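Bug: token stream looks shifted between consecutive jobs. Job 1:
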Amino acid sequence: MMYMRFLLIALLGITLLCSCQPHQQLPVNSLADRVTEGTAQGRILFQLLPDEHQPAKGYFEITTEDGKVLITGNSDLSLATGLNWYLKYVAGIHLSWNNPSQKLPSALPLPEKKIRQETSMQHRCYLNYCTFSYSMAFWDWERWEKEIDWMEMRGINMPLSITGVEVVWYNLLKRVGYTTEEINEFIAGPAFMVWWQMNNLEGWGGPNPDSWYRQQEALQKKIVARMHELGIEPVFPGYAGMVPRNIGEKLGYRIADPGKWCGFPRPAFLSTEDEHFDSFAAMYYEELEKLYGKTKYYSMDPFHEGGNTEGVDLAKAGTSIMKAMKKANPDAVWVIQAWQANPRAKMIEPLNEGDLMVLDLYSEKLPQWGDPNSRWYREKGFGKHDWLYCKLLNFGGNVGLHGRMNQLVNGYYDACAHPNGTTLRGVGTTPEGIENNPVMFELLYELPWREERFSPDAWLQGYLKARYGGVTPEVTEAWQALEHTVYNAPKDYPGEGTVESLLCARPGFHLDRTSTWGYSKLFYAPDSTAKAAQLMKSVAGQYRENNNFEYDLVDIVRQSQADKGNVLLEEISRSYDRKDKESFREQTRQFLDLILTQDSLLSTRKEFSVSSWLTAARSLGTTDEERNLYEWNASALITVWGDSIAANRGGLHDYSHREWGGLLKELYYQRWKVSFNQKQQEFDNKSEEQELNFYGMEKAWAEKSKKQ
């Protein structure tokens, strides 16, 4: 009898344990609460359950239990990915940068049958060094918290995390005898921090106030703590040899001069053969660990964008950099970007298998994994080393609808099937700027969860239903027009990123770009985007107060008007060539009116308004002096970028141009108006041709306080 009693109690305990498992309090519960504005609690349940049959695979399942949604997975990231999949493909809710949270409907949508997705790709990386300046330079914790939630729901488990690294260097240089003034001559200002970290420049945008270092240290500690809580492993910047240019005369180090980058003198390179390299690297990792702890991944890109390798033993450099990292953390993996000539084959060949992870940075256009049709073709890819298939997409934070859907999808499955695909370990996005083209990010991060090659056209229909909660024939037709034009740019399209808007260009005739390395010639009929815009406008009433639709509507109309401007400027150029002053007068008036119309349109959304960018910069300051410094950083980055040498001869002016409300009216309109007026006066014999100082206009705008 006593035995039966014990048996009943044991069985009851097991039953209670099993029934309670879906109610486990996991990090994803708090995530779900944040992104559904408190409406998921008790309605969406999560269960962490390993898959004993396929332990090497990540998986999630979406089912129902007692009228509730049950999401099961074998990691925190799998559960969060399952949550995002449920929201998109069952609840019709798409969370993105413009719509980071949304309440669930009162009647909870349930899946009609069990949904199960698996992946053997264990790594999903995110971010480019440039993103931290072009998009994130002035983020606070509230904005970072939303971004980390965004990462978690897309299964991202190795994002670059470089916020606050300037504090590491501050402490390191103090340790070796540098003064605060000397340190601030080396460390760049807030908007230019990443090019300093990439060994491209020193001090530009500074000096930084002491409060900046304290602020960024506190912010990074919050970021890292949240990432670890959610099962995300941050990628910290490692040490590859960068030192201040004056360290030779100050401390006697033997250094190499790596030359210049776009007119900026680069920081010096401490040879790995110098007796100080190991000790300096050790101090760097010690200071990094004191502040932010250890991580499994360290990012290093020596000789970035043309860094001088003359006289450098690349094999020794690679092994010394690896040795220093392994001394700090024996389990660490070196993360390196495949961009232009990097990584040099001689540098990575001696490194052990499993110790290096290569990001194929621009897989959708210039893959290096072994695609024989690529201009950056490497026959053996990255040899024995692991690598990730990455999408770059955006340059400079420029605004524009852009992507290569077919190339992105087919390239991934081609890589998986290629002999070099045996070392493919996952995917990633490495954009210079974010908060644009959400469709392309969603597509990329779904690739590892879809085992078989699929049609982007069919996928897009599911995306639109999720994005808008429902789709009309007009919306479908509009997006088909976009899919076959802006979202399938030819692989050989010149320039970088989107078709550039000439509304943002320094004035001229027969222009084919706005920035030095961009391109503005349309590869599609200009009425394609106009058609998409008209179709979207025709059903706007049915989507009133639908945040995603309203955001996309503004972006699509903006693109159609930018395309119209590019065509119109070529007509203006021809009128000028013909000395047809009446046509010139009328066409230039239309062009200027178009800039003001674009400005008014974009000012209706905070995402497309320059005031949002500048306000975020000023908000981080604790004094007027700090606020003005941060605002200047924010203003200069998107206009002149550097001094007159870097802007004009180095080609950096307008590299980060933004088709934003406020900036169009205050700067771009004024540049074009002055230029057109001068040309009109030449026609009327009222003035002689003279060169206009556009840099002076841009510099004046950057230096003028725009405090409201």
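Job 2, same session, no restart:
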Amino acid sequence: MLRDFPPEVDASDTPTWRSPRGFLTWLVRGQGSLVALMSLLVVAWQLPNVVSPWLLGRAIDAGMIARDPLATLGWAGLLLVAILLGGVGGILQHTYVVRSWVIAIYEVQKRVGHTTGRLGHLLSRRTPTGEVLSVASSDADSFGATLEVFSRAVGSLLAFLLVCGLMFTTSPSLALVVLVVSPLLLAASTPVLRPLSAAQQAERTQNSELTGLATDIVAGLRILRGIGGEQTFGANYATQSQKVRRLGVRVGTWQGVVEAISVFVSGALLVTLVYLGTHELAAGRLTVGQLISFVGYALYMLWPLQTFFDFAQKWINGLVAAGKTSALLAQRAPWPRRSASVGENPRLVDGASGVVVEPGQFLGIVSADPDASAALVDRLGRYLPSLAGTFDEDNNDDDQLKGRALRRSRAERYARRAARAESDARAAAQPWGVTADGVDLAEVDLASVRERIVVSDTGSMLFAGTLQEAVNPWGRATRTQAEAALVTACAEDVFASLPGGWQGRIDERGRGLSGGQRQRLVLARALVHDPDVLCLVEPTSAVDAHTEARIAPRLAAHRRGRTTVVTTASPLVLHETDAVAWLVDGREVARGTHAELMVRPDYRAVVARGMEGEDD
């Protein structure tokens, strides 16, 4: 049943949903034929339970009481056929449920991946990391559960109506009682659904923050150990986890209330039907077989009613997850689509700093303010400036709020995120201020910029996989080219230390490697990509002076004839550049070779700080 997996998912054509309910409706509609099939299979699965009371009653009245063995055998045979059909229906229903569940997870995760790639560096300024991880994991799984319970609820409703039809053929009055009382009993439980939804919403929000906190701690564990901050961050994690635990208890309490109401409602209907059925028998309006059938109907009614309660709980859980997921997937990159493209080996001019990058030049950028150098590289790569502390204001205590205060807090948070998106869109639509061969980068298609101009900074990540996948993730370079990049970055020791060489495994974020090894692998990956313009931000900041002295001439030789911009204060690297641009207050005030600029006291003072490298 999964031979057509994975399905085709056009993640680039993601609609915009007006509400979480609209997202769930879209999700159900996307698997409409499969949901309909699963609903029918639920009816087939429940067929023995639906018709068994009626068949058993007929076997008693027409066979056993009438002492007709053939009639008894015939009704028993029909009961056996119903049981066989129910078994086949149950197997198929479970199979298609698994298929629907897996497809829902796959589709959501693929769309999350596409959204992450589309937004790139903008994602972290709009959505917390923990929330993205929660959407891709727990929320994606909850949508599979929502589709399963939706199809089960539809099938239960059809089975419920079928049972009511059988009851009408026997006792219209009792069937009318079921049709009238059942909706009233279900409506009695609706008051507890709102606090259940609020509790699940608060628990989901705090759980995503806990996930993000755990991610940050793992990513910075080496630094935390170095500064003795493990206990502080561990205490913060413990505090947040206790907050999530308390919210989980609140969610469990309300779920327990819903379950208790479900048991009470089902039991009340069972008692009512048995009571009325015995009085009908005493009045002579029901036979013994019909009374047994009604008792069977009453017992069966427990299942659809409990299914409806289960549907209410999981649908609420799905709405909570849909609110977070739709908010993430509906985000759009601010860059307008353009038809123009960047030509080969472009000449770049940055208007803000006055820096000109000539084709084929190895240009060093030195600034007394490192942020000014980083901002220059961001402009060359067409990256919006980072927003420090973007989500400090989003650290909320929604679990402490209720009613209007809770709704106001959420509305304000979503308004802040919408304001960020609008601000990004305005910044991206304005003239960028950097030209490539005289054309402003704002007038060029972003994909063309990313193809021609590559920025590799200290925040670049290593993903879990083999060394070959880390250095050559695109699979376009030959082994000779990959080995040459590894040698240029002085990363041969990484190759030698991994069992299996190129097929040696690297953990996520390069855990198990030193900071210098990770940085050198990132440099090797950038060299393998071999773009027209390569911008390197502090490429040797985590290596010792001896390793840096080997990397610098190799890097210059490897990129000879290709445009390279490197921001650094290392004299070892600057000595190998064709020219150095000296920035003061973000503007270029001098240009020349490293030796020529060393006569300037201000330049020499900054470069002197880079004369000591850090150990691996």
